[in-house]
Amino acid sequence: MSSKKIFVERRPEGDYAVRRPNSERASAVLPTQAEAIARARELNQGGAPLVERVRHTKEGKPDKWRKP
Length: 68
Hints:
Protein name: DUF2188 domain-containing protein
Number of helices: 1
Organism: Caballeronia choica
Distance between the termini: 24 Å
Pfam family, one: DUF2188
Helix content: 10-25%
InterPro entries: DUF2188 (IPR018691)
Shape: globular
């Protein structure tokens, strides 16, 4: 049984990792955030991925998570 949560995180290399909570390795690494979100949706049919904010906005800072 897999966890319902899946995350899209920006890596220091500038690409995006799709990973489950407490995982050691990413399920996928893609060059753009949009591609990573699409892959996360494919891997997690039951729920929306949580996406790391990568810039400052009036709604949040980079240390916050959002739904796409």
